[in-house]
Design goal:
The structure is a single chain. The protein has 11 helices and 6 strands. The protein has 313 residues and is an alpha+beta fold.
Length: 313
């Protein structure tokens, strides 16, 4: 995490010497020592030193300075941060930290205890096999449709997420990548229970755990995740999304709309799930931009969390 708090513009009148001051003092001491040695060596063994000794130089002894890579600043003490968190305004909270990367650094380094990655009300919540939703039957305060073609009865998400997905789909179409539709959005605890149980019944638990979350562990239940499909011209299955022009465009541009592809190829050891090019997760534009710029591939890495390839029990 980062030290994203603000330093006061007023500096103490008698501030501790800087590291540069300490280095300069040390260098002067070395020069004086060398000068004395040269003067002594100019005379032969047993001879009195010739000439006048070097002019004595008085060096004020400076107290040791402790240099810290990370200033001890608590961003949670910033009134702007506490106000935004208290109001539930995620965008304002991130801005008060100094932006997406500053927020990420603060959270991942442990210097922002006021930020909870477990609170499902926030867009930055992290849900995985080791981090269940709390409460287990959490439901978003409100949901809305995307206005896109939907292939199941579960096409809703939080309003801000639905709006962002509609803009993402427009971006794909405008870029000539093709139309995008929705397969699944929000799923309640009970619907996730039925979905997971069906997978277990049809393919066994090991397969189900690699493809579907257990109830209480699903990002779909947060209202922040959707499964999308290619619709050119008809909408296909989610498994058919991989390799399509839409999938390639989404992988490159989702961050511009506040989304990440949550389960990338080759990241099963961290996320516990196989590659799902169709599963997009909303984290907001500021965090998505920091995620993209930092070259991250999982939320676990982004926030400095342990990998979660398996359920604890």
């Amino acid at each position: 995490m980062s030290d994203n708090g603000r330093m006061s513009a007023r500096q103490p009148r008698h501030a501790a010497p800087s590291s540069r001051t300490v280095l300069v003092a040390a260098a002067i001491g070395v020069v004086i020592t060398l000068m004395g040695s040269v003067w002594a060596l100019a005379s032969g063994p047993g001879e009195e030193p010739k000439g006048s000794p070097p002019m004595p130089v008085t060096v004020t002894e400076l107290p040791p300075v402790e240099i810290s890579a990370t200033p001890a600043v608590d961003p949670c003490a910033d009134p702007a941060v506490t106000k935004a968190l208290g109001a539930g305004d995620d965008a304002a909270a991130i801005a008060a930290f100094g932006g997406g990367e500053a927020f990420r650094l603060a959270v991942s380094s442990g210097t922002a205890p006021c930020v909870s990655l477990s609170d499902p009300a926030h867009e930055w919540v992290v849900v995985n096999k080791a981090r269940p939703l709390d409460p287990a039957r959490y439901a978003p305060a409100s949901l809305g449709g995307t206005g896109l073609r939907t292939t199941t009865g579960s096409g809703e998400a939080r309003p801000v997420v639905s709006q962002a997905l509609a803009q993402l789909a427009k971006g794909s179409a405008d870029a000539g990548a093709g139309a995008i539709g929705v397969n699944n959005g929000y799923r309640s605890y009970d619907l996730q229970q039925r979905t997971y149980s069906t997978h277990v019944r049809n393919r066994g638990q090991a397969w189900a755990d690699s493809e579907s979350a257990r109830p209480g562990h699903s990002e779909h239940q947060t209202g922040l995740a959707l499964d999308i499909v290619a619709c050119s011209p008809g909408c296909g299955e989610i498994q058919g999304f991989t390799g399509t022009p839409q999938a390639q465009w989404v992988a490159a541009h989702a961050w511009e709309y506040g989304f990440i592809v949550r389960y990338e190829d080759g990241r099963t050891a961290v996320t516990g799930y196989v590659h799902e090019a169709w599963h997009v997760r909303y984290i907001g534009k500021e965090l998505a931009a920091a995620y993209h710029a930092g070259g991250f591939h999982t939320l676990e890495e982004f926030f400095g969390l342990p990998a979660a390839p398996d359920y604890p029990h």
